[in-house]
Amino acid sequence: MTYKPELLATASSMEELELLIDAGADAFVIGEGKYGMRLAGEFTLDMIGEAVKSAKPKGVRIYVSMNTLIDNDTLETMPDYIRGIYSLGIDGIVFGDPAVLVAARELAPGLPLYWNAEMTSTNIVTAQYWARRGATRYVLARELNMEQIEDTKAKSSLEIQVQVHGMTNIYHSKRSLVNSYLDYHDDRERLDSVERERGLYLTEAERPGERYPIYEDDGGTHIMSSDDICMLENLHELLNAGVDSLKIEGMMKSMAYNAVVVRAYRQAIDAYVADPEGYSFQEEWLDAILEAQDPNRELSYGFFYKEQVY
Amino acid sequence: MTTGLIGAVNNQEVREMGTTNAAAPKYKGKRNRLDRPELLAPAGNLEKLKFAVHYGADAVYIGGQKYGLRSNADNFSFEEMKEGVEFASRYGAKVFVATNIYAHNEDIEGLESYLRSLEEAGIAAIIAADPVIIETAQRVAPKLEVHLSTQQSTMNWQAVKFWKDEGLPRVVLARETSFKEIAEIKSHVDIEIEAFIHGAMCSSYSGRCVLSNHFTDRDSNRGGCCQSCRWKYDLFVDDEPVYEEGQEQFTMGSKDLCMIEYLPELIEVGVDSFKIEGRMKSIHYVATVVNVYRQAINAYFEDPENFRVKQEWIDEMNKAANRPLNTGFFLDTPGAEDHIYGPEEKAAPYDFAAIVLDYDDRTGFATLQQRNHFKPGLEVEFVGPGGTFFRQTITELTDVDGQPLDAARHPMQHVRVRTLKPVKPMDMMRKKIRK
Predict the structure, then answer these.
(1) Looking at CB atoms within 10 Å, which of A298, B57, B110, B287 has the fewest?
(2) Which pLDDT tens digit goes with each residue over B151-171?
(3) CB-nearest partner of B214 from A175, A199, A225
């Protein structure tokens, strides 16, 4: 079978979804915040249905994110939600909590299940454990490096998915930390809703220039990386390893930026697939991204070439 | 409550707790799986293990050389584990080992032999989050119980049921779980539930924080956490600081958990194991905290209807506290008052000063092992298991040969002190810190 890696994107709205399909995305992760973790935007059941209708004829797949941390209350409505998305003809469910896995197996038989517990999805043996319980894809933690990714692919019976572009979460609390801080200053009205959604970031004295976005939602407080992963230059390493799905995380980015990024990776993947041997990286693919990149956010290799200690 | 610890007991509230609970508990789960809740204490090394057990822990959890989340702690060799297990068994106590990392591919080699060695050392259970460790233990070391670590951040009953079906006898819940949610979990699944009731807390969901990875290239989920959540940050919006930079800064750092005032609720909701955090904490901290919970649990079971939280327990707890205290997520999601925004005050006004090695009835002198500087004229307290407690001023201080000393200034030095009342080996002496 010819190797045809998937270019996976996120979408904040139907408009962005259409735009990124045109830019070359093969698949999308969407969903609603009650079940999904750190989504680019909110897709209700109706909108998911609309997304499927729009994507399917073009051969584009729609996966629904359900990998938030699940509490008892969420269990109450979860079965209906799973039945609902299943009936819409989606192509997969992303899970982290075993409660979702168990329910999806029963209520959405045959639907691919993607294991993504984010920073705690760190090794192949555990991925195989979830495979024996129904998972079909392993979404690797962003804290793994290239050697570990290659080793994982070599040992995996599952599809593997790696994030190649965009920000990552570095801290998630159930607490409302921004509101708590404002309350400490007795100053809850200090920030308006737009600022809260888009403009907030943290700095740390020893790390000048690094801006760590922070926001709150119903799931608590999220702090994000100060840099954006960009693996475009070295994409062939991941393609040589046979990674099945390459994800572009589009949260907290403009549609226009995401379209540029998707287009760049599309070009690289197409060039590689057409001629793996003769493939060479083209500077102009990256130039387009560099031009669109927020100057306050560095493009980095994330943890791909790092050895961490402990 | 700004810098305060747990305040004076609200007597009205406690009285109501005592009377109403007997008839209709506020939070009712299923009956406990164990006859009475287990008091589970941390032990950073062999000496701390002995003190935790001596002061009343039913079980202790320790770290070995690998697979644990406290790579900076002393951690136990297999020989030390065996000695710890032997010591604990004299008190009928068990020893658990934390194997709670999220493993990377290269960590897996050696796991089987490590787990077999734990089993051989007589360890009763491992505390694990990663299925590779859970499954490997079940396969190669079947005598080890596997308890699901809080690092899995489990807080719903379907997930708890999943782990029970996978053969785990116990789940340590996420620290984000409330009394109400614990009751729901207990009513749906017949399994041992362990909950943190005391100590420092990750303010993130456990396992869902890689600040250390990003700031220092240390892997937090493999034991490299450098507590970046307790650093101070500035909050900005659109290039402008929300408050003046460097002043009253933002932090994720939480106050510490202390549930002594809600002991009846914890028992009645059906929590099977009460867990104290702190493998990095001192002997004095662990012994003091265990001592208080041991007395409180025993008092409850002697007479549940008339149970009262004693002010002396709260006073004791405050003497060991490192930070201001709160009740975590048990009652409600923590707010502004549960974080430490200003300068972090060291809370405990007392320091550990010595351990009692021996006592001579004839002379009224105790032999002490020095753990901190002290000298005649200093006011000290002696504390022992079960509520032994008295205060005195040091009058006579000598070396082991009876020669007078002006101070006990050498670490681990053996000295003699005349005590007001008889004391026992492993009693502790603490001194008030001069402000």
Answers:
(1) B110
(2) 999 999 999 999 999 999 999
(3) A225
Spatial contact of A158 and A137, defined as CB atoms under 8 Å apart: yes
Quickly tell me which residue has 């994330």 as its tokens. A302
SS3 labels along A3-62: CCCEEEEECCCHHHHHHHHHHCCCEEEECCCCCCCCCCCCCCHHHHHHHHHHHHHHCCEE
Residue A183 to residue B335, Cβ atoms within 8 A:
yes
Segment B232-252, tens digit of pLDDT: 999 999 889 999 988 889 999
Taking CB atoms within 8 Å and a gap of at least 24, the contacts of B356-359 are: B356/B382, B356/B384, B356/B423, B356/B424, B356/B425, B356/B426, B356/B427, B356/B428, B356/B429, B357/B414, B357/B425, B358/B425, B359/B419, B359/B422, B359/B423, B359/B424, B359/B425
Mutation pick from A76, A100, A123 vs chain B, by most beta carbons of B within 10 Å, is A123
pLDDT tens digits for range B21-60 = 444 566 765 545 567 899 999 999 999 999 999 999 999 9
Mean pLDDT of A180-206: 85
Cβ within 8 Å, pair A177-B339: yes
Q: Tally the domains of chain A.
A: 2
pLDDT higher than 80, residue B369: yes
Strands laid side by side in the B389-393 sheet: B389-393, B379-383, B428-432, B350-360, B365-370, B414-418, B397-399
Closest partner CB to A98 (pick from B159, B221, B254): B159
Structure tokens at B60: 């202790």
Closest Cα in chain B, distance from residue A97 (Å): 7
Distance from CA of B26 to the nearest CA of A (A): 19
- Which of B148, B158, B171, B239 to mutate against chain A (most A CBs within 10 Å)? B158
| Residue whose tokens read 């005590």 | B419
From A148, B114, A86, B83, select the one nearest A138 (Cα to Cα).
Answer: A148
CATH architecture of B350-432: Beta Barrel (2.40)
In this structure, are A80 and A149 located in the same domain?
yes
pLDDT of residue A194: 62
In chain B, the residue whose alpha carbon lies closest to the alpha carbon of A150 is B105
Question: Which of A82, A95, A122 best tests the B interface by mutation, with the highest count of B CBs <10 A?
Answer: A122
C-alpha span between B14 and B260 (Å, rounded): 12
Q: pLDDT, tens digit, for every residue of A139-150?
A: 999 999 999 999
Q: Are B198 and B191 in contact (CB under 8 A)?
A: no
Report the alpha-carbon angle B254-B260-B266, nearest 5: 100
* CATH 2.40.30.10 domain span(s) along chain B: 350-432
Q: Which residues of A touch B235 (CB under 8 A)?
A: 178, 181, 200-202, 214
Mean pLDDT of A153-178: 97
Q: Is residue A126 less than 8 Å (CB to CB) from chain B?
A: yes
Interchain CB contact of A294 with B (< 8 Å): no
| Residues A69 and A12 grouped into a single domain | yes
Asked if the model's pLDDT at residue B3 lies above 90, the reply is no
Instruction: Choose among A70, A119, A151: nearest Cβ to B210.
Output: A119
Q: Which of residues 7-26 of A touch B (CB under 8 A)?
A: none
Which of the residues A72, A75, A217 would you substitute to probe the B interface, choosing the one with the greatest number of B C-beta atoms within 10 Å? Answer: A72
Domain range B11-201+254-338, CATH architecture: Alpha-Beta Barrel (3.20)
The pTM of this model reads 0.94
Chain B residues within an 8 Å CB radius of A306: 217
Cβ of B210 and A185 within 8 Å? no
CB-defined contacts A:B, below 8 A: 208
* Å between B211 CA and nearest CA of chain A: 6
ipTM over 0.95: yes
Residue that terminates a domain, selected from A200, A224, A248: A224
